Structure formats: C-alpha cells, structure tokens
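Deviations from the work plan: none for this task. Representative record:
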Amino acid sequence: MIEAHHLTKTFKDKKRGIVTAASDVSFTCQLGRIYGLLGANGAGKTTTLRLLATLLKPTSGTCTVAGHDAATAPEKVRANVGFLAASTALYGRLTAREMVTYFGRLNSMTDEAIRTRLQVLADELDMHEFLDRRCDKFSTGMKQKTSIARTLIHDPAVMIFDEPTLGLDVMTARSIVKFVRDCRNRGKTVIYSTHVMSEVEKLCDTIGIIHAGRLVAEGTLADLQARFGEKDMEEIFVKAVGGEAALAEALKH
Amino acid sequence: MNWHHIVTVYLKELKDSLRDRRTLISMVVVPTLLMPLIMFGVGTIMTKVVRKAQDEATTLVILGGADSPGVVAALKADAKFKVSDSTADFKKLISEKQIRLAVELPVGFEAALKTGAAQTVTLYHYEGEMKSSMGVGEVDRFFRNLRDKTVETRLADRGLAADLVKPFEIKRQNVAPPEKVGGNMIGGLVPYIIIILCFTGAMYPAIDLTAGEKERGTMETLLCSPVHRVNIVLGKFLMVMTASVATIALTLVSTSVSIIIGGNLLAGGGKAAAGKAASGSGGFIPIIDPAGILGVFAMIAPVAMFFAAILLTISLFAKSYKEAQSYVSPLIIVVIMPAMMGMLPGIELTAKTALIPILNLSLVCKEMLSGVWHWQYIAIIFGSTSFYAAVALALCVRMFNREDVIFRA
C-alpha cells in the first residue's frame, strides 16, 4: 500500500526562481490495485513518483510505502519497491544475467535465491535467448524485459512505473501494459504514471489527474465520467485541469 | 556502512570498467608501455644520435691561415676535423648547417707564436645547436693543446720547468653513493611521472562511474536499490582508487623491468654508456634504491585516495561524460604545477612544504629515491595527505546526497 500525505516538493531554478513541482499531493494506493497518475509533461508525475521511491526527499509532507515511512526508513521503502522508468537504464557493458544478479545482491539476496528467482523470471519473460548477452546490443524489447526482471528480482510488494511505455513501439508497449496488469493480479500495489489517456482508461482502477504539481481530480473512471459529464478520458482531463487555455499555459513552462 | 554492499558495488564497477576500452587504455596500456617506450625508444635514439654526432668529423672552414701552413696542416691531419675549402659566406654555411663552425686565424699567426706577440683565434659557431657546440669544443681543445705545447716550448727555451705555470692539479672525486646520484638525477622525474599517472589513471573511471552513469541513465537505476548512498560512494571510490594504484603499480613494474633488461642489454653490448649506468654516475639508466621505490608506492596511497575522491566529486556534478572531461582536464595543470615545482632546485622539504599536497609528495619521493628518509616529514606528509583525502571523500558523500547534483539535468 502507498499513502501520500500532503507531499510538497520545491526546487530552486536559476531562471524561474523557486519551482513547486509537487504541491500538497495526497492519495492512497490500495493493495492489488493500479493507481494511474495522469498528467501533461512537467505536471509533477515524475517528481511525485521519485518522492515515493525515496529518490527525492519531500520539502514537506510524508508518505508511507509498504508500511515503511519514507523519511525515517528510505532503505526499507526501496527494498519493497520495484521502480521502472524511462530514465532507469541498463548497464550496457553487463549481460542481462549480470545486471539482474547485481540488483539481487544489492537487495541482499543470496546467490542461490537470485539464481532460482532469475530462472523463474527468465521463463516468464522469455529471456533465455539473450540472458548472457551484453545489454548494449539489445533491442528495445529485450531492454524492457531485462529492466522488468531487474525491478522484480527481489519480488517487491509495490511497483512504481513512471511512463514505462514512453518511446516504445506498439508491441513492446502492449507487453508492458500486460505485465503491469499481471503485477496487480498477483496482489501487488501498483502506481502508474502516463500522459497517454487510453492506457489509463484500460489499466487503472483509480485515476489521479495531476496538473501544475497539484492533484486536481481523483476517482475511478466512472466517478470522473459522472463528475465531469464526459465519457472520453481526454475531455475529462482537459476539464479537470481547467480548460485548454490552462493546459497550454502549463505546457509553456 | 555495509561491507557486503560496498564490495558488491566495487566488484560490479571493476568488471564494468575492465570492459571499458577508455579505462583499460588509461589504466593498463599506457602505464605498461609508457616507461619502456621512453627508456628504450627515446633513450636509445638519444644515445645513438649523440654518439653519431660525437663520432662524426667536424666540418669546418679555415679563414686566413695562408701564412700559417703548419697549423692548417695539423688541423687537416686531425681525423676529428674535416676542413672544407668552401669560399662562400661562412656565417651562412654555419646557419644552414653545411659546416659546424669556422676558425679564423689572424694574419701572421705562426710567426707570432715564435715571437710571442699576443694573438686571438676566433671560433664562429651556432650557439644552441648541438653539433656546432660539440665541434667548437673539439676545436677549442685542439688550440688549447697547441697553446700548452707553445708554453712548454717557450719554457724549455728559457731553461725553466714546466710546472712553473702549472703549480698544482685540480682533481674531482665523487663521494655520493651510486643510489644517491641516481636518485638525484631521476628523483625529480619519477614522482612527477607517477603523480600524473596516478591522476590520469583515476580520471576516466571517475568520470565513467559518475557523469557517465548519469548520461547513460543508470544512476537512477542504481539509486532505486535499497543500498545506502554512502555504500555506493565507497564502492565507486574503491574502484577509482584501484584504477589509480593499478596504473602506478604497472608503471613501476614496467619501469623496473625496463631498467633491468635495459641495463643488461647495454652492459652486454659493452658500450661506454652502460659502464656509466652501472656506476650510477651518468648514462640514461641510473641505479635507484629499491626501498625508495617501495617508499614512493606507500606514499602515493593517500594521494591516490585524494585524487579519487576529488575526481569523483567534480565529475559527479557534470551532466555528461564530455562536461566532466571539460571540468577535469584543466585540473591536470593544477596537479602538474606543484609536481614540477618539486623538481626545481632550492625548493626543499620543510615543515611548511610538507603540508602542501602533491608538492610534498614530489619532494619526499626525491629524498626517498636518494636513500634519505626524513621520518618526521614522512609522517607529516602521510598524515596531512590522508586528512585531505578524508575531507575530499566526505565532500564526495555529501555531493552524492544532494538531489540537485544527482538529478542535475
């Protein structure tokens, strides 16, 4: 489970002064459910997820991930989280096996446990063919599979996906979406950020719309449809952020 | 601190670095080949060139001398000289290196030698040009001999003893042991090369492990793991230090092997330079105290720590490999300056200079290679450099905990 309470994060920027990337963000992500964080570029999705994964420290507010407080036990939080983002790359000079084994060791797993777990993951993800090849020679699909194996090696209770389908071809993107759904079906808590409306519609149990660092609307797809009187997710999104003018203004920054 | 995590990070970085061509070249190839190349390549070529220049007859022209046939004939008869009959402008010939020098004999030189009237022989040469300088030395010796003989003849004519004008001899005797001579000769150069290698050996891994990781997007992946950031920094730091120390160790091994093989080769050849080298009084391969080499290696450890921490800190700040290179490359000058100052005469090891990083190492290495061990200074230098290294490492850990540095984009 993930609980975020009034998370606020500000940065100093030379040109823009103090920038509020996340402002008073509160939400709860239940066990065995997918929480979708929907927002335009620069809305604060990545910052929020980095706060949950303890990569960043909040300026104010708190969050609890898998029962651990991010401020007091960041290492325990990370031990229970699998974090997959477009910006989490692989070590090109390591093989897929070495890459996944390395992260197993960093999670304090024994070599025996890593071997057993990797065997299971390689079966599930169909990785055997390229397991002992170096990552820099991989296709995008192979890279994604290896990254997924890396996030799952320690079997975390919470999965955080930050725009995992960004820049991927249709087939690879579809396999990722399927994999995210599998995670939920296995009882994991999943938080998924994207700016692709259709993914949210298909995938998420609860949707949070984030705009200019604030969570402006939250609920199931049905809730949001009722609240904004629209069927289409894109229309709901535009209304939630305060119209096209507000969206265009936010995207300027 | 979690040693399991530190070792895991370290071993992974070691494997990763050994698969990186840039790191391999700076860590293994350059240090292994550099010293043998300098010693055999440059050293052999220098020896050959100098010997060839020495063996070659000095081409010269004689200006005047029509009324001094005896001196001209003696010059022509000497195998060391090759007298040219060219009548072209001698200054131009010297400048164009067609001849090495010109000898101007005054009018009535030989006659004046007999009568005792004062005369001046002028040697025209090209200052700074090696062959011309060597030639002028030979001709100078020729005329000195002639002068000495003339003096002897004059003294004999007057029935006086030869030692009247040479009441005593001056003799030089070397008291320095061969190690000391060798240490003094290359004592400045060895630490200088080692300091530069220590720095360049650490440079590429430091950039690759920080800015390189940020650029390739693996830094965020690594930070997602439950490992405490101090352990990540220490693992990376140990790797950079390993690269630095490996660079120096390989240099020392290749240098020692070069000295042993080179010494044997030259001694086996029975050449003059080998004899000089064996006695430690000259040549290109002097003898060094082996304990000095070990001392240098021990003293370099805290400096390698210092360099590793500083380089990691600076390159961590950069967004990309290229940006890090542009920050780190000018630092080489900052490192070379104090290392070079250590080679200057007059800058000695004192309580003050012992506190200046890099310069102190350069100075103490020079002493150790000469077999002189100032234990109190060695302690000060080791202590102060370790302190600087610890401060730099603390700074590095702090930088690693700064979000604006880690996520700088």
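Chain A touches chain B at residues 11-12, 50, 53, 55-57, 75-76, 78-79, 81, 83, 85, 87-94, 98, 102-103, 105-108, 150-151 (CB under 8 Å).
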